[in-house]
Design goal:
12 strands, 6-stranded mixed β-sheet, alpha+beta, globular, disordered C terminus
Length: 285
């Protein structure tokens, strides 16, 4: 598709709606989280909107972001050294952009590098720990791109932040979203673990055996669909939350900078292993 030329409308810093108490002004980063210094959690979310004029939406998002930052106050602070965040309420960097394109056309025909158009440029303000870009399409649709300092949040924390922001904004989602949820019963998962142990797999976790089952079925299905009978090399990657805390469950998202079109999230619960499949709007691969 034709390369879009984004037009920057405004840049500003959004501060928390209320000041952070003095007793919470210093946030200590854990030893594990220090390892992620220099990395960001990057997410893009697309929304459909029938109203072409997005000025009211933009102002509403700024107001709700300010309120959300009061809850997630470290994100509005600044990194003092390699182990400390000064929660000084200096705010998050917020950019508004406009593109002369329709959202649905972009989602149908875009290439992976095009996603960078919707991501904020952290070089514009290097001190911010949270960068946001709101991109308005000519049809009224919008894209929200976010870069969040990985030292403060993993993907679970980032998506929980967005979920809370959306709740405060009270902006309903009207997109072409496909989201499915399945539960693998605990007894069935335990049976999978026994079978794995019999195959000389030492101490497999519940998530590992379910992931292995899904991967095995995916490879089997792909081999049947292949006209040549041969398969492209594939890799199963398991991302583990090693942070001190988690901030919630995933919502629909696009991992920026990663050529991942379909994402499966496994969550180990008391009832069993919960599977959430998030289908992104791309059918090229």
């Amino acid at each position: 598709m034709e390369i879009m030329k984004p037009e920057i409308i405004s840049r500003e810093t959004i501060k928390p709606s209320s000041p952070t108490p003095h007793c919470q002004r210093i946030y200590k980063v854990s030893v594990i989280d220090k390892l992620s210094r220099g990395f960001d959690v990057a997410i893009i979310i697309f929304y459909q909107n029938k109203e072409v004029n997005n000025s009211s939406i933009s102002s509403g998002l700024k107001k709700s972001l300010s309120e959300t930052l009061t809850r997630y106050y470290p994100l509005a602070g600044r990194l003092k050294d390699g182990a400390t965040v000064e929660c000084n309420d200096e705010g998050a960097y917020f950019t508004e952009v406009r593109v002369d394109s329709h959202l649905q056309e972009f989602l149908k025909h875009h290439d992976d590098p095009d996603l960078n158009l919707f991501m904020p440029d952290e070089r514009q303000e290097s001190g911010s720990l949270l960068h946001l870009q709101i991109t308005s399409f000519s049809c009224g649709g919008i894209a929200i791109g976010m870069r969040m300092c990985h030292m403060l949040a993993d993907i679970a924390g980032a998506t929980a932040f967005i979920s809370d922001w959306a709740t405060i904004s009270a902006v309903p989602y009207k997109g072409n979203l496909v989201r499915k949820k399945f539960i693998f019963d605990s007894t069935k998962v335990d049976e999978l673990k026994r079978k794995a142990t019999q195959s000389r797999v030492e101490n497999p976790t519940r998530v590992q055996v379910v992931a292995a089952l899904i991967y095995r079925c995916a490879v089997s299905a792909a081999s049947k669909l292949s006209s040549s009978g041969s398969l492209k090399p594939s890799v199963l990657t398991q991302v583990v939350n090693l942070g001190d805390f988690g901030w919630g469950n995933l919502i629909w998202l696009s991992p920026a900078g990663i050529a991942t079109k379909n994402v499966i999230c496994l969550n180990d619960t008391r009832e069993g292993v919960e599977l959430k499949r998030l289908l992104l709007l791309n059918n090229k691969r």
